[in-house]
Amino acid sequence: MIPPDECLSPHLGVAQRDHVRLVWWRFYQTFERVRVMEWTCACRSTVYELCEGGGRAFIRRIVQLENDHQVHETHRWSIAEARANWTNLLSGKAR
């Protein structure tokens, strides 16, 4: 585990009382090319990634378990909508 003072990537803010609940879908392998544009720090058990590809974007959630991991994704949005949801996720306005 990385000590918090050595983290280079952001951490999520505390979830706000009235936060928006994102819908998470099980990861489904597709053949589209996707680029991870931003991500949260891997020092936490759950890592989030902002992914873009084909003019669309989504957020991926990876829960790191002891011997495995679980991957879920939001539906695809326009890049502007995904970036707004990413900002909300980081600030605690969405989960």
Task: Report what the structure shows.
- The protein is an alpha+beta fold.
- The longest helix is centred in the last third of the chain and has 13 residues, at 79-91.
- The protein is 14% helix and 33% strand.
- The two termini are 23 Å apart.
- Strands 1, 2, 3, 4, 5 and 6 form a six-stranded antiparallel beta sheet that branches.
- The protein is built from one helix and six strands, in the order E-E-E-E-E-E-H.
- The protein has one helix spanning 79-91, and strands at 25-26, 35-39, 46-53, 56-64, 69-73, 77-78.
Topology:
Elements: E1 25-26, E2 35-39, E3 46-53, E4 56-64, E5 69-73, E6 77-78, H1 79-91
Antiparallel strand pairs: 1-5, 2-3, 3-4, 4-5, 4-6
The residue fraction in helices comes out at: 10-25%
What is the N-to-C succession of helices and strands? EEEEEEH
**How many strand segments?**
6
Uncertain segments: none
Give the overall shape, derived from the CA principal axes. Answer: globular
* Count of helix runs: 1
Mean pLDDT: 90
By secondary-structure content and strand pairing, the structural class works out as alpha+beta
Sheet of most strands: 6 strands, antiparallel
Taken as a percent bin, the fraction of beta residues is 25-35%
Radius of gyration: 13 Å
Distance between the termini: 23 Å
